[in-house]
Amino acid sequence: MRGYRAELAFDGGRFRSDGALVLVDGTHIVGVESGSTPAPSDCEVTDFPGSTLLPGLIDTHVHMCGDNSPRALDQFDELSPDELDAIIATGMRMQLAAGVTAVRDLGDHQWRLIEHHRDRMDGPTVVGSGPPITTVRGHCWSMGGEVTGADELRRAVQERADRGADVVKIMTSGGAMTPGTDVMVCQFTPDELRIVVEEAHRLGLPLTAHAHGLPAVQQCADARVDGIEHCSCLTPEGFNTPPELAEQLAAAGTLVCPTLGRAVGSEPPPQVRALMERMNVTWEHRLAQVVDLYRAGVTLVSGSDSGISPGKPHGVMPEAVIDLIDCGVPTDVALTSATGLAASTCGLGDRTGSLRVGLDADLLIVDGDLSTDLTALRNVRTVVSRGREVDLAG
Predict the structure, then answer these.
(1) Does 374 reside within a domain?
(2) Are 73 and 50 found together in one domain?
(3) Domain, as residue range, for 82
(4) Coil, helix or strand at residue 88
(5) Residue 25 covered by a domain
(6) Residues 43 and 155 reside in one and the same domain
(7) What is the pLDDT, as a whole number, of residue 86?
(8) Distances in Å between the alpha carbon of 224 and those of 23, 85, 139, 194, 293?
(9) Distance (Å, whole) CA 232 – CA 213
(10) Are residues 30 and 18 in the same domain?
(11) What is the mean pLDDT of residues 302-326?
């Protein structure tokens, strides 16, 4: 048994005024005590003065098959299985180094992640959707999820249940990263989307939907999807969330992942920059739109969309949490969106996301006081993933 002690602590839902001593045996947490509690005599304790201890972060929107390059989502057909495996392994190391100990993958290529990497112990805990369901040549079609018609939609959902997907992902609008698709256009009819929602729920799977254009977001709200990724509410006049739509999402308890976060000093990839110029929108406009969602009572969960471009590399998750502060979200709520709430969103609430006895020993220690400065998430000191200390230098 060993222990980790810090004067400051966040337990996955609130700050602990007395700090914390977390005891770990094997892969699990076996004790959570006040920071001033003496450790058992047979327990070696590492003290972290001036640091904050919290559960490992959970990124609810990643693309582990993406290599962070400008063509990350366009090159799959050019990669061998060994090359794709190497990309996934590198991405996992980058996630852990940033303090991310669990990820929800929403863009697998031909089931490679779920069937070959989900159970590996040298990376973060993985839950995933398999290839996202999309239209023929629709957004992210090259991942292997193209369908057309009601029967194929039902078969696609059944396939995801049969192959062990943890969540169903559907592309309800086009996306900037797939040439030939339009973020303003719905990819499925309302009836088709309802079929997918009903089938997923019949099989006991949650459903989350990619949606950028306002028509797609409204369609998702009406179909009562469980979650919406991006939720940009784009219109020809820019970002615009009608108050009644925000109220509808809040009342339904729809989880919205705005996929904030970008590498410090990075520029959007060319296709995203072109879209922003055409729509006359800026990053500041986007943050203001997320403010509207939060003020309306919409539940926000943190995810970064990592792996898709140089500005969205694996491990950028801390920036997605920090951005929530600029959206008026209180510090404890922002951290919960990436720990306790993120765990329940991913179906991992009984495994990780909190400092609680019996859960996986997923811990993050950062230098600084997160309660007063959330940018301290960048100052990673130690990461523990399922009881194993991560080699940050490696």
Answers:
(1) yes
(2) no
(3) 57-345
(4) helix
(5) yes
(6) no
(7) 97
(8) 41, 36, 21, 8, 17
(9) 7
(10) yes
(11) 97
Strand 363-367 with 299-300, pairing? unpaired
Give the whole-angstrom CA distance, residue 2 versus residue 29.
Answer: 10
Of 211, 111, 213, nearest to 164 by C-alpha is: 111
The phi and psi torsions of 104 (rounded to 5 degrees) equal -110, 110
pLDDT at 276: 84
Asked whether 362 and 101 are in contact (CB, 8 A), the reply is yes
Within-domain flag for 394 = no
Residues 6+ apart with CB under 8 A from 334: 302, 321, 322, 324, 325, 374
How far apart, in whole angstroms, are the C-alpha atoms of residue 312 and residue 72? 10
| Residues 277, 282, 283, 286, CA torsion sign | negative
CATH number, position 20 = 2.30.40.10
* Same domain as 205, residue 120: yes
Q: Which of 102, 30, 167 is nearest to 348 (CA)?
A: 102
Query: Is residue 263 helix, strand or coil?
Result: coil
**153 lies in some domain:** yes
Q: What are phi and psi of 100, to 5 degrees?
A: -90, 115
Pair (192, 240) in one structural domain: yes
Crossing angle for the helix pair 243-252 and 283-295, to the nearest 10 degrees: 60
pTM for the structure as a whole: 0.97
